[in-house]
Each structure stands twice: as C-alpha cells, then as structure tokens.
Design a protein that fits this description.
It holds the Pfam family FAD_binding_8. The chain is an alpha/beta fold. The protein is built from 19 helices and 16 strands. Among the domains are: 92 residues, Elongation Factor Tu (Ef-tu), domain 3 (Beta Barrel), CATH 2.40.30; 158 residues, Rossmann fold (3-Layer(aba) Sandwich). Helix content is 45%, strand content 17%. Strands 14-13-12-11-15-16 form a 6-stranded parallel beta sheet, with helices on both faces. Strands 5-6-9 form a 3-stranded antiparallel beta sheet, with helices on one face. The two termini are 44 Å apart.
C-alpha cells in the first residue's frame, strides 16, 4: 500500500511539473504571434509588471534544467520502488507457507468472474526480465528510461558545445518519451480491488480471515481485482496540444521568404548576413533561429540580432564554432554559386530588451558575445540622430573582452561612429568604452606602449585606449557605485559561465542595503 501511494503521488508530481514547464516555456519563449505587420511578445505583455517578475522569464532554461533534474530523480525513485515490488511479487509467487501474500498471488489469471489476478508474475517459472519485456508497462518503461538517459547524457555541456548535432537530434526523441509515457499505464499492472468486491471483502474486516475466504458460509468472499486505468495521458494532453500548435506556428513563420541583401566576411572567420523579411519587427537584443536547408533540414541555430530596430533590415554575425557554422561560412564563401537559402524563425525576447529601462547600464560582451550589444549601440546611435528625448538611460559602460585584435574589426566602424556622435552632441560621458585584449604578446604590448601618447588607439583607431589583460571587476563596480550613488544599474552579460559567477557576486556585493542607493541588477543572455 505504501509503495502504491508513493508511486502514485511521485508520478503526479512529475507530471504536474512537466505541465507547468510546458506552459511556462510556451508562454515565455514561443508565444509570439503576428497581428498586422508587427510581432507581439510575452515580455511586452508583461511590461507593466515589476522588474523582478519580468526577469523570471529570462530563467526559462534554468527552469527547464531543474525540471529535468527532478524528472530524473523521481524516475530513479519510481524504478527503485518497482524493483522492490518485483522482488515482493517473486517472493510471494514462490511462497508456499499459506500466508496472505501467497494466497493473493495464487489468484488465477483465468477466473470466471473476470481478470482478477493481483500478482503479474503468473507462474513460479516467470522471471522479472520476462515479465518486464512482455508487458506493456514494463516494455514502455524500459524504452522511456533509455530515451531519458540518452536525452540527459547528450545534454551535458561538453557534448552540447562540441557535438551540437548529437544534442539536437537526441533531444527531439522526447516525442518517443511522451508517447511511451502516455501508454505506460495501459495493461493494468497496477491493480486495485473492485468496488463490488470491497463490499463483500473489505480489507480492514476480512484480511485477517483469509483462510476462510473459500468457505461459502463465511461472510468474506475471495477479493476481485482489476487494473487501474491509465491516467498519464491526461497530464500530457494539454502540453502536447500547445506544443503541436506552437510547432505549426513556427513552421508557418519559417516558411516566409527571407531575402539576403548583403554578405560581409569579417576577420577571424566571422560572417555577417543582412536580410529582409515581410512583416519582420524586432527590439534591441533579440535573437532568431536560423536554418540552412542545404546544410541540414532539421537543425535550427540561435543567433543574436546585431541590427537596430530603426534599420530597414536585420542582421546576424556568425562565428565558426562547429560543423554547422563552418559549413554555412563555406557556403557563402563559394564564388560563382547561388546564395544558399536561409529560413528564419523569430525574433524572440531576451534580457537585453530591458536595457533602456535602467538609468545606468553595463554591457559586457566576451568575443562574439558582443552581438546583442551591437544592436543596442546601433539603436543608441539612431536615437541621438533623431534626438530621442524619451531615453531614460543616462550612462552606458560598454565592456568588450577579446582574445585577438582582429575581433575588434567586427564593429570597429560602429564604435568609431558612436564615439564621433557623442563628441558632436556634447555627450562624451554618455557612452564609455572599455576594450580589453586578453590574447597578446610582447610585440603588441610594446608597440602600444610606444604609441600610448597618440590621440587614437593603435589597435582600434578609437580615442578610448585598449587595455591589456582582463578587467578588475571589483574596481570597476566600486568606481561605478561611487560615480552613481543613487542609481539603478543594469548589468548585462553575454559570455562564459565563469564570468557570470564573478559578475553575479559583484552585483550582490556592491548593491547597497539601502534601496535608495546604488542597486546592481544582473541580466544574462540565455540560449
């Protein structure tokens, strides 16, 4: 009885969490719809909510992982509980001591009154493996456990980063998992006493008199059992319907024609694609999913938009970081060949959309992680061009950490234009560049030292000098907290996990306990 209750409520808990996960992800990541010529997003719908509530939408992947961990934990508990049950089934079937368990196990599978057996092990010769592989619950349980193991192991960061295709394809066998979960309860291996039988043989009254069940003159009769109906399909039906319609919506959007208007090859094997698409509308910092059918019909990869909402096109920057991106760059490098077809789905919202809601913003990009901030910086340039007086942000600190000097050329023209625009408009203190070069040798450092007195930096051509090494974040946060003693500072990162931990710690450390003084709010891009 205890095992049955444990299995029942653990299963309910897992399925409830899965339902919540689907609804959450559907609302957060995929609930965008087209109305006229404009996309509307959940983040905009919740724009009236407090900042703390809106920020929870940016933790969708973290929530996804936590639910996955809980599913794995409860799956393990569920399997262990079944193993204990199987041991008890086998022991009861083999028993000849005339105990209650032995009597219940001996109930025939061929009773005239119906299928009233209780022990699924029908004979003393039946093994646990045979029973598992020949029953619907057992066979589907094995299948969905194998699928879950494959999905979890292929989701490890090492595999996801180095072998994205393995992660992508194995993650989509979740369809098999939920089909198996839906029919897992069919077969009635978990059984209960029928309502009619309970009236004649109530467990509390008749269990201790089981020796007299066959006595026709005794008031307790032999109990009758039936399989409990499958209920897991009820819990996965609603998320399944939502997922189906979401896939139809994304398929429709992805089939809309995308025209590539410009292709630019930047240093360090970075490809820039400028595109147009009917009805496409974006906000700063958003991202899209990109598919190239000539490379793979099924693979969709996320890329941050590097264009500004004010521009009449949208663009992405693609760095060679795996087989798919390398093949994409090679396809566009080929001369005298037609431009590959590109399909686009999105855009989708990120934390960077809120950048202009802060009085002070710290934009921190590592390598190609600068892309979401390129969109923000371009938008700033357009806002100053059109004298936008509704801009709430007063100061922006832009940090770009690169390993090689060639990376600065990706957006060098943009940074130079912004620097000039700030000078001409008398807003030199509005935008502060902090460029850091982490991969350098003595020749580069010596050359920079000899030319330090020049008006422009020898590496970037900007008036802001390039720093060698990594930022001293304690010093940076302390300085900003001193300069802006009563401001709300938004810290936005697109970079590695190690940097994320450091910045989170600094945000907590340098935020004042007094809510009227400097407060740092951490935001990170998640894909």
């Amino acid at each position: 009885m205890a095992n049955c209750l444990l299995n029942h409520w653990l299963s309910v808990l897992v399925l409830v969490m899965w339902l919540g996960l689907n609804v959450f992800l559907f609302v957060n990541a995929f609930l965008s719809y087209e109305k006229g010529d404009k996309y509307y997003y959940t983040r905009e719908i919740l724009g009236f909510c407090r900042r703390t509530l809106r920020k929870q939408l940016d933790h969708n992947l973290t929530f996804h992982k936590l639910v996955a961990y809980m599913i794995c934990l409860h799956t393990a508990i569920h399997i262990v509980a079944h193993l204990f049950n199987f041991e008890r089934y086998d022991r009861s079937r083999q028993s000849t001591d005339g105990s209650l368990a032995s009597v219940l196990s001996s109930l025939s599978h061929q009773e005239k009154e119906g299928d009233s057996w209780l022990n699924p092990m029908q004979t003393t010769n039946m093994t646990v493996i045979y029973m598992t592989l020949t029953s619907i619950p057992g066979f589907t349980g094995v299948i969905i456990t194998i699928v879950l193991v494959l999905m979890v192991t292929s989701s490890m960061e090492f595999i996801r980063r180095s072998y994205f295709e393995v992660f992508w394809y194995t993650h989509h066998i979740f369809i098999i998992y939920f089909i198996g979960l839906g029919i897992h309860g069919i077969g009635g291996i978990v059984r209960g006493q029928t309502e009619e039988s309970i009236k004649e043989n109530h467990p509390y009254r008749c269990a201790e008199f089981f020796e007299k069940w066959d006595d026709h003159d005794f008031h307790c009769k032999s109990p009758q059992f039936e399989g409990n109906s499958a209920e897991s399909w009820k819990w996965i039906l609603a998320p399944g319907v939502l997922y189906f319609f979401e896939r139809i919506l994304r398929l429709y959007r992805s089939q809309q024609q995308v025209m590539i208007t410009k292709v630019v090859m930047h240093p360090s094997k970075v490809l820039e694609l400028q595109m147009i698409k009917r009805g496409f509308s974006m906000e700063v910092g958003q991202y899209i999913f990109v598919n190239c059918p000539s490379i793979s019909y099924l693979e969709w990869h996320p890329f941050t938009l590097t264009s500004a909402p004010e521009e009449d096109f949208f663009s992405i920057h693609v760095r060679a970081a795996g087989d798919w991106t390398e093949n994409l760059i090679k396809a566009f490098e080929q001369q005298n060949s037609p431009i590959p077809k590109i399909e686009v789905d999105g855009p989708f919202g990120t934390a960077s959309e809120d950048v202009f809601q802060y009085e002070v913003a710290m934009l921190i990009g590592a390598g190609i992680g600068v892309t979401p901030f390129a969109s923000i910086l371009k938008s700033i340039w357009y806002k100053f061009q059109h004298a936008d007086h509704n801009l709430k942000t007063q100061t922006i600190y832009f940090y770009w950490i690169c390993r090689e000097t060639g990376a600065f050329a990706w957006f060098n023209d943009l940074l130079a234009s912004l620097e000039q625009e700030m000078e001409e408009s008398g807003k030199v203190g509005f935008l502060n560049f902090r460029l850091f070069l982490t991969g350098w040798d003595n020749n580069i450092a010596g050359h920079a030292a000899l030319n330090f007195d020049k008006a422009t930096d020898i590496l970037t051509g900007l008036k802001h000098k390039t720093f060698f090494g990594r930022p001293m974040w304690d010093k940076e946060f302390s300085t900003i907290a001193t300069i802006h003693p009563k401001s709300v500072v938004g810290v936005f990162l697109c970079g590695p996990q190690a940097l994320e931990k450091c910045l989170r710690k600094c945000c907590h450390q340098y935020s004042s306990l007094d809510p009227r003084k400097t407060q740092f709010y951490f935001n990170k891009e998640n894909f």
